Amino acid sequence: MGSQYSKRYSEEFKRDAIALARSSSKTITEVARDLGVSPESLRGWVKRDRIDRGEGGPGELTSAEREELTRLRRQNAEQQKTIEILKKLRPSSPRTATGERGLSVHRCGEGLTGVFIAVRWLTWGFVLVHVWA
Fold this sequence. Notes:
The chain has 133 residues and is an alpha+beta fold. It has helices at residues 11-23, 28-35, 39-52, 63-89; strands at residues 103-110, 114-121, 125-132.
C-alpha cells in the first residue's frame, strides 16, 4: 500500500526519467528503482510521453487535448449555470407597453470564482448576477 503523501516531481525530472527509460536496456521497474520512484509513476510518464508524441492508440488524448477538453467542459458548465439563472429570471421580468419583456443580459467579465453577468430590466435598472464556476 502506498504512502498517504504523494511526491511531486519536476517536469525536468520526469523528462530525464522518461529519456533514461526509453534509452536504457533495463525494464521500467529497474529504472524506477534506480531513480527512487514508483514503477507505476514512471510507466505512466512514459505512456503519456508516447501519446504526446503521437504514438498512442486511437482515442488516446494528448496532454494538450486533455487540457482543452477540461477547459471546454468547465466553460460548458459555466454556460449551463448562466442559462439556468436566466431561465429563472425571465418569467419575473416586467413587460414593456408593447408586451415584450424588458430584459437585456450582458456578460461583464470573469472573476476568480466565476462569471459576472449584468441583467438590465427596463423598469428596475441593473442587477448584477454572479455565476459560480
